[in-house]
Design brief:
about 475 residues; alpha/beta; 2 domains; 17 helices; globular
Length: about 475
């Protein structure tokens, strides 16, 4: 698409936004003139699509912002995604106290209960309460829900986005097909993005992550979705590079830190959960299935063996260990780790392992604040530890972990989960401990910079009300 044609198309979207009564006539013109050529290039994987890039945020919406929808796999049981939504809503309400927020999510009931906002499921299954026993009827039900209910999903999206000014996809690694195409996967996001553009609703990708996109359909859908965006930024350079490699023109797009870096820090005076006769190392564990790297049980077993060796070494060094997690599903890994510790060293002091329930982002922040150093596996365990200025080692299972640590010039404290060893953990921790004061100072400076960058982005997108 030629530059002048693209600029002409960009200039027409504010007109759609300011005069909804003329949406369909404008849309017909735009689709006829632009989409066939553009989408054909997307389907072929051309690298010159999606060049809308990052237009001036001041041009994204009119003088008043009334309703914004946030889309994502948000569920209180996953503390990483939940920290993203919490940070986003805190800053949205700070800048736009009179505007309304709604959430399009995988667990609308929990989100409404937690935040008191309207929440809608990304998808809703028809006949979900009907569970026939007959196999033929079961097959017919699956066909009905899988195929014939598709128009219903589009109608739901159409109804939900009526009157919405902006659809925001905030943070998280949403651009992946590792969990399938439907639901919050690429096809589900495609459906909501197309409906948003039909309504003249601004489509914003705010500090998002991406990958893996293992299927041709997933990559194609991601290219189309991003080509529709009015504004795009990525939480790390590795995401930007990944998307460039699958055919998205990211030249004008921004890299802006993960939204969780804009959360308030825990108050150290309020988070001393118990007296500390010894220094405490936070150990963030994860139920690792190999979904992102194509590995599985073998790597997970080696991962746990390495943690056992490391924990026993820490106890010998007179550290206590506080177990951390980033998802309710990690509870079983905590139990498994303790069982393996008991098998490896029946005489070890079990009281030196602090294993307290974590059921919310607030719980996690409080427990991180009660540590001195952290070894984290889940990405947001590392982010929230750095947010609280804790010298941190990241056990990397995805490119986002390595990219985060590289941004802080701490790459030598990032260990790949594939081929992890207890000895490697011990060596990295010994180095971290020896340089603890200097590293904490670097983290403090960089996280303050991250917070300022996120604040500028929030103000540009949400535009503080006078």
């Amino acid at each position: 698409m030629k530059g002048g044609h693209l600029q002409e198309r960009q200039n027409e979207w504010p007109k759609l936004h300011s005069n909804r009564a003329r949406n369909f006539s404008h849309l017909r013109t735009i689709v006829t003139r632009s989409f066939p050529e553009r989408w054909w290039r997307v389907l072929r994987g051309r690298t010159d699509v999606g060049s809308s890039g990052a237009p001036s945020p001041a041009s994204l919406w009119g003088p008043t912002l009334q309703q914004v929808a946030f889309f994502g796999n948000f569920d209180p049981s996953n503390f990483g995604n939940e920290s993203t939504l919490r940070a986003m809503l805190d800053n949205f309400h700070r800048l736009q106290p009179n505007a309304r927020a709604i959430c399009i999510t995988t667990n609308p009931t929990a989100i409404t209960a937690t935040y008191g906002i309207r929440a809608i499921g990304i998808e809703r299954t028809l006949l979900h309460a009907w569970a026939p026993r007959d196999r033929l009827v079961q097959s017919l039900r699956r066909i009905f829900n899988g195929v014939l209910s598709e128009p219903y999903q589009w109608i739901r999206a159409w109804s939900t986005l009526r009157g919405v000014d902006m659809l925001v996809i905030p943070g998280t690694g949403l651009l992946t097909d590792a969990y399938g195409l439907r639901g919050w996967g690429p096809y589900g996001l495609f459906r909501w993005s197309v409906v948003a553009k039909i309504y003249g609703c601004k489509l914003i990708f705010l500090s998002v992550g991406a990958g893996p996109l293992n299927t041709a359909a997933g990559r194609c859908l991601a290219r189309i979705i991003l080509s529709l965006a009015d504004y795009r930024s990525y939480r790390d350079r590795s995401t930007k590079h990944y998307l460039e490699n699958i055919g998205v023109d990211v030249g004008a797009d921004l890299v802006c830190p993960d939204p969780a870096f804009s959360l308030a820090k825990s108050d150290p005076q309020q988070s001393q959960l118990r007296p500390k006769p010894r220094k405490i190392v936070g150990l963030g564990v994860m139920h690792y299935t190999g979904r992102f790297a194509g590995t599985g049980d073998t790597v997970h077993a080696n991962y746990l063996r390495s943690l056992v060796q490391f924990v026993l070494w820490l106890i010998e060094r007179n550290y206590d260990v506080r177990l951390l997690s980033g998802d309710v599903g990690d509870d079983q890994v905590r139990e498994e780790l303790r069982r393996l510790l008991q098998q490896a060293s029946p005489s070890y002091e079990s009281g030196r392992i602090i294993d307290e329930p974590i059921r919310s982002v607030s719980d996690l922040l409080s427990q991180i604040s009660a540590t001195d150093l952290v070894v984290a596996t889940r990405f947001h365990n590392a982010v929230l530890s750095l947010l609280n200025e804790k010298p941190t080692i990241s056990i990397s299972f995805h490119h986002k972990c390595a990219s985060l640590m590289n941004t802080l010039n701490m790459s030598k404290y990032c260990l790949d989960i594939d081929g992890l060893s207890g000895q490697a953990l011990i060596e990295a921790f010994s180095d971290l401990e020896a340089n603890e004061t200097e590293i904490a100072s670097v983290i403090r400076r960089k996280t303050q910079q991250f917070r300022e960058e996120m604040d500028r982005q929030y103000r540009a997108i949400f535009r503080e009300q006078p």
